[in-house]
User: Fold these one by one.
Assistant:
Number 1:
Amino acid sequence: MTGDDNSVNIAPALGRDAYHHGDLRSALIAAGMHALSADSADALSLRALAREVGVSATAVYRHFPDKDALLVALALTGFDQLAAAQQAASRAASGQGALAAFSASGAAYVRFAIINPELFRLMWKAAPRGDQLHLPIDEAHPAMANLRRTVEDVAPPGSSEDDKRATALRCWGLVHGLATLSLDGQIDLDDAMIGRVIVGLTGGPQT
């Protein structure tokens, strides 16, 4: 956040008394998410967010001892939102079959990144190191767990676990690559092109 002129004061909507009942953490996350819509994670300031929601810096530190703790919370919120967007897209296309639903989920991943560039970058910067496809599925973040579960729906009968993992990696690599290339200004993507590229991978109907 670069200044108060670009911010939305959330404090009046909740009321100061709400902070004494556990809502300050949620208000700070909401303010942080709003800030990321206009600026990078590097520009975030706990003191600025405190002013944003109308509390002292000391109150903020009770919930987030440092900036890194806030960034992790924002990244986790981003992964929840990404998973929700993918699930909604998948449900909307489910009447066209499993492949269409899978394709729609992948397209939603790319669109989410394009709409939320700074949040998307933060999410993957904050994600734990290591092979996400080898984690137990109940330990994976929601978006990755969704990918691994939906691969089961599109994998040919009798596919081995290695085949399913390869499919998940191929699909993740495609959508993440598209998203990154777009955010880095290497390609121009519109909805139609996103659908065309992703349908080419899965072989399902265009989304």
Number 2:
Amino acid sequence: MVTYTIKKLKTKDFTGIEKANIDNILWGGTYKPECFAQVIYVEDEGFYAKLSCKEADPLVTYKKGDFSDDVCDDSCMEWFIDFLPGNEKGYINFEGTAAAAMNCGVGTDRNARTPINKMIGELPTLEAGRDGEFWWVEYFLSLDVIRKIFGKINLSSGAEYRGNFYKCGELTQDPSYLAWSFIDIPTPDYHRPDFFGKFIME
């Protein structure tokens, strides 16, 4: 199982933060742009996840502020996270595009999902931008939102969570299916917590 250590910081700063390479090609694809993810925990605030991809011209159909199940048709980078592995509520899926369109829900698998805004009345923060040859998305998941969904979670050193990072683009010129933690099934499905990797709090 792949693992990633989440650094605890006083303020948001991704400088020098470990990169999780999103480099496993899935489901017969061949397109493999350079992609990686970084996650930090800022004390008394919450979790920030920044995913970066080296693409000159990402596909943007959905616009900033759009909320749709189909944002994965565009150039999209995703973070799935389960703070209480094995719990009955499941995991959160964050799916964001280069234009900051988003899909985000909570559930135990692909079909049993509830949009997060319908569950708690708000959405986590998503920003998107470009840094040189890379475009990026950045998710912020506050402790308040986490508690509304999961209740109290373990934030101490050594706490373990489960999750994965993905890069996709189902309708892009070069369709991409990439993952940090490999998914060993024959047909496309990112909603597979049985193939999640491990996140460990520093």
Number 3:
Amino acid sequence: IFSVRTLLSGVLAMLGFSGCEKAWNGECEYGMPMVDYRVIGEVTDEAGKPLSGIRVIVQDKSLYGKDGNYHTYNHEGDTVYTDAKGAFQSAKIQSGGIYKQRVVFDDVDGEANGGEFRSVDMSIKDLDSKQIKKGGDWYEGEYELSTKVQMKKK
């Protein structure tokens, strides 16, 4: 009986590992879909002049829970700053989906670079979405999310 149990345990373990063969390269994680995304864009003032030094924070919040209920979890997002042309690009972020993420634009240098501007907070759903790479299995693919933001003076 011990030998039969040992043999069956070994077979079941091998079946479990082969069921998620792509897990080791990050494309598949058993039980949870994944998506990669990057946020790009431009930030200007009301007159259309590019704003440099604006802090752009991609806040990654996903909804899922081991208990089957929905919960909000904060995952590591990304923080970048606009360049002299007002352009920015976040790092590629991997998440459980594109649901509740937010992008926050803050003027952190005060009067420098054109004056003081009000913060802008927007949902990731308000950005233009373009699929860069197709997905498969539990991997939903890679997306580029873009926006043009006009900041108003305080």
